[in-house]
C-alpha cells in the first residue's frame, strides 16, 4: 500500500510571527517620529538639569589645586590639629600652585567656607615661594600666619577635599557643619535664603490665587458665550502673548507710578488726595505678575469648561437645585482638573520670575531667581547657584505632587457627593 504524501506547511513564517514583526516595525516607526523630540528634550532640558544638580554637590577646586593635601587630610579625624605630613603636603601643594598660578582657584572655594581664607592662602603661597621650609612644615606655616594653628582652618580644608560635598546644599538652606561635622544653623546675620524661599513661595501662591479669582469668570464666559463673541474675547486674552514681557512690565511702571494713569484717575474721581504708592513694592509685583500670567490660568480652565455639557446644569435646575447650588455641586467639581492645571502652571512660572520683581518690586520683594542670577553672573559661585536651583526644583516638585493629590481627592469626593 502506497503512503499518502504529507502536505507541506505554508511557505515563510507563520501568521503570529508576521504580526509580531509588523507590530515591532510600527513601534519603531512611532519611535522614529518622536525621536527628534526626545533628543531635543534631552539636550535642552535633561542634560542641563543633570548638570545643575551635579554642580550643586561638585567640589573639585581643592582636590585639583591641592591634591596632596586633600589626600593627606582624609586621615585626620578632625580632633586637634593634623599631623606633620599634612602640613608638609600643604606646603608642597602651595609652592606648586604658586608656580602654576592656580592658588586663587582653591582660595576662592575655601573663602566660601571661612571668611578671610583667600588672603590667608594667597599670602602663605607667596611667602613659601620666597622662603621654602627647611625644617618642619608646621613651624614654617605657623610662623607665616598663626591661623594655621587653628582647628577651624583645617576643618575648612577637610570639608572641601571633594570630590562631592553637601556644603552648597546646606548653605542654600541656611545650614552648615560645625567643627565636629554636625549640621547646625548658620549665624543669624548670614541666614537669608530661607526667608527668600518663603517670600518666593508666598508671592507665587498670591499670584496664583489672584489669577484664579480673576481668570475663572473670564474662562466661564469664553466657554459659554456664542462663538463670535467668544473668539473676540479670546483675542484679548491672547494679546499679552504677542507683547514682550519686558514691554508689559515697563508699561505697568508707567501706569502705577505716582504720576501715572491709575493715580491720576483715582485723584480725578476724588477717591484719593495723595498718590498711592503702587510701584517698587509688593503691590506692583502682584499686579504685574498677575497680568503676565493670567493667560496661563485662563486657557487650561477654558479647555476644561468647554467640555462640560450644558445639559448638566439644566438637569440640576430641573431637579430643583438653585443656580448657586447647581454651580457649586455640579459644575465646579468638573472644573477641578482645569483649576489644578492652571494653578500649577501659574505657580511654577511665578516662582521662577526674575525680570518683573526686579523692575517693579523693591529690595524686600526680590525672589530666589534674583539670587540665582547674582551668584551665576556676578560672583560666579555656580555651586551655590545650582544648589538654590536644586532646592527650588525639589520644593516645587513636592508641592506639585501634594497639590495634585489634594485636587484629585477633592474631585473624587465632589463627584461622589454630586
Automatic annotation (TrEMBL):
UniProt-listed PROSITE patterns: ABC_TM1
Compartment(s): Cell membrane
Keywords tagged on the record: Cell membrane, Membrane, Transmembrane, Transmembrane helix, Transport
Superkingdom, natural source: Bacteria
Membrane topology category: Multi-pass membrane protein
Transmembrane segments: 30-54, 201-223, 235-255, 283-304, 311-332, 338-361, 382-403
Protein's name according to its UniProt entry: ABC transporter permease
Taxonomy of the source species: Bacteria, Pseudomonadati, Pseudomonadota, Alphaproteobacteria, Rhodospirillales
Amino acid at each position: 500500500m502506497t503512503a499518502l504524501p504529507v502536505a507541506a506547511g505554508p511557505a515563510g513564517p507563520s501568521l503570529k510571527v508576521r504580526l509580531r514583526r509588523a507590530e515591532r516595525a510600527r513601534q519603531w516607526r512611532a519611535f522614529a517620529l518622536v525621536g527628534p523630540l526626545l533628543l531635543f528634550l534631552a539636550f535642552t532640558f535633561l542634560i542641563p538639569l543633570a548638570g545643575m544638580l551635579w554642580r550643586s554637590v561638585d567640589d573639585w577646586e581643592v582636590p585639583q589645586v591641592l591634591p596632596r593635601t586633600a589626600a593627606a587630610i582624609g586621615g585626620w579625624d578632625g580632633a586637634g590639629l593634623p599631623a606633620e605630613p599634612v602640613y608638609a603636603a600643604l606646603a608642597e601643594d602651595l609652592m606648586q600652585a604658586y608656580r602654576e598660578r592656580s592658588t586663587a582657584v582653591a582660595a576662592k572655594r575655601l573663602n566660601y567656607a571661612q571668611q578671610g581664607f583667600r588672603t590667608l592662602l594667597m599670602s602663605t603661597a607667596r611667602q613659601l615661594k620666597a622662603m621654602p621650609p627647611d625644617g618642619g612644615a608646621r613651624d614654617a606655616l605657623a610662623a607665616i600666619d598663626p591661623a594655621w594653628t587653628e582647628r577651624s582652618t583645617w576643618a575648612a580644608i577637610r570639608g572641601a577635599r571633594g570630590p562631592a560635598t553637601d556644603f552648597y546644599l546646606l548653605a542654600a538652606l541656611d545650614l552648615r557643619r560645625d567643627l565636629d561635622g554636625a549640621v547646625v544653623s548658620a549665624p543669624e546675620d548670614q541666614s537669608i535664603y530661607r526667608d527668600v524661599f518663603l517670600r518666593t513661595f508666598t508671592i507665587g501662591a498670591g499670584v496664583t490665587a489672584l489669577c484664579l479669582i480673576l481668570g475663572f469668570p473670564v474662562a466661564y464666559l469664553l466657554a459659554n458665550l456664542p462663538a463670535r463673541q467668544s473668539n473676540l474675547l479670546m483675542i484679548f486674552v491672547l494679546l499679552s502673548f504677542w507683547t514682550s514681557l519686558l514691554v508689559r512690565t515697563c508699561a505697568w511702571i508707567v501706569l502705577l507710578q505716582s504720576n501715572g494713569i491709575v493715580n491720576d484717575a483715582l485723584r480725578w474721581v476724588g477717591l484719593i488726595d495723595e498718590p498711592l504708592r503702587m510701584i517698587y513694592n509688593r503691590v506692583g509685583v502682584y499686579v504685574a505678575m498677575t497680568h503676565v500670567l493670567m493667560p496661563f490660568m485662563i486657557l487650561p480652565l477654558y479647555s476644561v469648561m468647554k467640555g462640560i455639557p450644558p445639559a448638566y446644569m439644566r438637569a440640576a435646575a430641573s431637579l430643583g437645585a438653585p443656580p448657586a447650588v447647581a454651580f457649586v455641586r455640579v459644575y465646579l467639581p468638573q472644573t477641578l482638573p482645569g483649576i489644578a492645571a492652571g494653578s500649577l502652571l501659574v505657580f511654577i512660572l511665578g516662582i521662577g520670575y526674575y525680570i518683573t520683581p526686579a523692575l517693579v518690586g523693591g529690595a524686600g520683594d526680590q525672589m530666589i531667581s534674583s539670587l540665582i542670577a547674582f551668584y551665576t553672573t556676578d560672583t560666579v559661585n555656580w555651586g551655590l547657584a545650582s544648589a538654590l536651583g536644586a532646592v527650588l526644583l525639589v520644593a516645587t516638585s513636592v508641592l506639585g505632587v501634594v497639590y495634585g493629590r489634594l485636587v484629585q481627592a477633592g474631585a473624587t469626593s465632589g463627584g461622589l457627593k454630586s
